[in-house]
Write a structure and sequence with these properties.
The protein has 116 residues and is of the alpha+beta class. The chain has a four-stranded mixed sheet. Strand 3 and strand 4 form a beta hairpin. The chain is elongated and about 55 Å long.
C-alpha cells in the first residue's frame, strides 16, 4: 500500500505534523484558531507567549492504529510570520513597544550586539 503525500499533513507513523502560520501578536497575546486534523477541524488555544518553532501537541488527533484502534497525536509546528509593508502607524506602535520593552532588564527586543 502506498500513501500519497498530503499538502497539509506530514505523517510519522500514527502521528501527524502540521505547520501553522501565526502573527507575532497572536503568539505574544495568545489566541484561538481552527486547526485541521485528519478527522476534521478543532479549535486550539494558542497560549500567551508562544515562541517561534514551538510545537504544540494534540493528543489522539493522529491516525488510528490498524491493530489497536488507538490514535496517534497531531503536532502543531508554530511558524511566526513577520509582517511586511507596515504602515507608518504600525511602525510607530512597534517602536513604542520596543522602547517600553527596552526598559525591562531582559526584554523581548534585546540589544543586538552586531548592530552599529
Amino acid at each position: 500500500v502506498q500513501v500519497q503525500n498530503d499538502p497539509v499533513f506530514t505523517r510519522e507513523g500514527n502521528d501527524v505534523h502540521i505547520n501553522v502560520d501565526l502573527s507575532f501578536v497572536d503568539c505574544a497575546l495568545g489566541t484561538k484558531i481552527d486547526v485541521p486534523t485528519v478527522y476534521g477541524n478543532v479549535t486550539v488555544t494558542i497560549p500567551e507567549g508562544t515562541q517561534p518553532e514551538q510545537i504544540l501537541k494534540l493528543r489522539d488527533r493522529g491516525i488510528k492504529d490498524l491493530r489497536s484502534g488507538k490514535p496517534g497525536c497531531e503536532y502543531i509546528h508554530v511558524k511566526v510570520k513577520t509582517p511586511v509593508n507596515l504602515s507608518p502607524t504600525e511602525k510607530d506602535l512597534l517602536r513604542q513597544f520596543q522602547e517600553e520593552n527596552g526598559k525591562k532588564k531582559n526584554g523581548f527586543f534585546w540589544k543586538n550586539p552586531f548592530k552599529k
